[in-house]
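User: For a benchmark we're assembling, each entry needs the component sequences followed by a predicted structure for the full assembly. Here are entry 17's components. Please fill in the structure.
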Amino acid sequence: SQLAEENSWALSVHEGESVTVNCSYKTSITALQWYRQKSGKGPAQLILIRSNEREKRNGRLRATLDTSSQSSSLSITATRCEDTAVYFCATGAPRFGAGTKLSVKP
Amino acid sequence: EAGVTQSPRYAVLQEGQAVSFWCDPISGHDTLYWYQQPRDQGPQLLVYFRDEAVIDNSQLPSDRFSAVRPKGTNSTLKIQSAKQGDTATYLCASSFITGGGEQYFGPGTRLTVL
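Assistant: Structure for entry 17:
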């Protein structure tokens, strides 16, 4: 069973716009990870946010964590075509959700 | 530094055939993971090792799947008698637990069972 799930199957934005991917999880966690997977590649970790952190940034990426509602978000500002990928949240070993497919159009 | 390498990159089998996947983790990484990723789904953890010991294989279909990491470095995942439902990409990842545990994934092996 999935311990973490993204809340949208697919999102589409134009270059330069901002976008947010949301995730909910089911159990208490010590950390939550956001990954990006481009076509034909393995996932790559973007941000690891620990349970005692509320926000973490990595360049144009910003992750938030709300342990009271067991939810997290990943925001991307000034999107680029190369941000087109599937975005996953994961907890534990880790165990992944189904992913949100983000398309960034020119 | 070389990343996680996997071979083969692609495999096509008939049902009932056997196949093995090989993974070479990043040097010095003590933890190695195998995932199954069906098309349009997230990776599903099958098994993971710390050094040569199996830590969790609860999601590994034990009747047909096996995984070993005999010297705590490279690993092999084997499927005996493949089924069409095994069609997926098989991903290997490694991490160094003391280094924060960030996982580094290989490119995967895309398996098609006809």
